[in-house]
Amino acid sequence: MTGDSRAAAQAIPDQSGRLVVVTGANSGIGYVTARELTRRGAHVVLACRSHERGRSAVERLRTEVHGARAELRTLDLADLTSIRDFAECWSHDRLDLLVNNAGVAMVPFSRTADGFESQFGINHLGTFALTGLLMPHLLAAADPRVVTVSSEGQRFARFDMTNLNAERRYRTAFAYVQSKRANLYFAMELQRRADAAGLRLRSMAVAPGLTRSNVLTGGANGTRGRVYATLTRLLLRIAFRPTPAGARTSLYASTVPDLPGGSYVVPDGPFQLRGEPVLRNRERAIHDSATARRLWLLSEQLTGVRYAHFVSGETVSNE
To answer: What mean pLDDT is reported for the chain?
Structure first.
């Protein structure tokens, strides 16, 4: 770790006793988030699509953090069956913190196992379904919190409710920033609904800024050829900041004790590309409750997951 990374880690409050899930925790921002939470005493479940890569991540984490309390569970956000299996097999008595970190970026067109365009299906619908299915466990915690990783790119989205699932046309960058806008809508609407039901849940969204990770080079992007890989790695090295810096907003939203629900945490530098965590409340999407509600209802319809806990403020299970 660099000196700055050590200082940031030391600033995190003690996390002893917290049960945490971090999705996409085998690499990048997700791995750093999981590592630093375990470093401060949390018991962290690394939710990873690949068992092999997840196992390597847990082994690496345990070498970097002496006495780390970490475990691996497989989860594929591109498959609703996998999401349901993950939630149904949850064996702890509660869940204190869910970090919705996993996602894909700028990938060629493809469909998920359930027929959704992959960026919308994984980044938003998978996150929506997982959070809803884990809700009984979150609400069993004394101070539950959900942190959803959006992107500074969401500011450029032209959110088209009639083409969320590439019904008419697929443009890679457009689909990506639209899915990240959906993440922000979801986080804010989740807080509104929790407040309306009188639940103690806090929901936050974060933007990491330009961060080096394998999201642009791994997964489906790994098939784009040598030229793409070489140019992308060069861009990442020149313009993007180290991964630990990108994890700061996630760690801030996950651990600051008095952070209010509905917060949007972004880097404080120009265009939210780099800098230290700061709250931002001027984003139009934060206040666009009408669009957020329409997206929520559509997401329930597409995934079959309904947040029944919020109907009357009572905690009941999804069926």
So the answer is: 88
Output the pTM of the full model.
0.88
176 is catalytic: yes
| Cα dihedral across residues 136, 141, 143, 145: positive or negative | negative
Is residue 268 within 8 Å of 113, Cβ to Cβ? no
Query: How is residue 49 written in tokens?
Result: 């699509």
The dihedral built from the CA positions of residue 150, 151, 152 and 158, taken in this order, carries a sign that is negative
Q: How far apart are CA 312 and CA 307, in angstroms?
A: 11
pLDDT bin (cut points 50, 70, 90) of residue 161 is: very high
Instruction: Locate all alpha helices (DSSP H) within 161-283, ordered by sequence.
Output: 172-196, 226-239, 243-246, 248-255
C-alpha 315/C-alpha 80 separation (Å) is: 22
Of the residues 176, 185, 252, 307, only one is catalytic, namely: 176
Residues whose CB is less than 8 angstroms from the CB of residue 68 and which lie 6 or more positions away in sequence, other chains included:
35, 38, 39, 44, 61, 62
* Cα–Cα nearest to 240, from 207, 275, 273, 278: 273
Amino acid at 62: R
User: Residue 252 is which amino acid?
Assistant: Y
- Sheet containing strand 202-206, edge to edge, reads 69-74, 43-48, 19-23, 97-100, 145-149, 202-206, 264-267, 277-279
Asked whether 274 and 209 are in contact (CB, 8 A), the reply is yes
Residues in the chain: 319
> How far does the chain reach from its first CA to its final CA, in angstroms?
45
Q: In this structure, what token pair is assigned to residue 97?
A: 């913190």
- Asked if 248 contacts 210 with a C-beta cutoff of 8 angstroms, the reply is no
Residue type, 84: R
- Of the listed ranges 32-41, 79-88, 156-165, the least confidently predicted one is 156-165
Tell me the pLDDT tens digit for each residue of 222-269: 555 565 455 555 444 545 567 888 999 999 999 999 999 999 999 987
pLDDT in tens, 197-207: 999 999 999 99
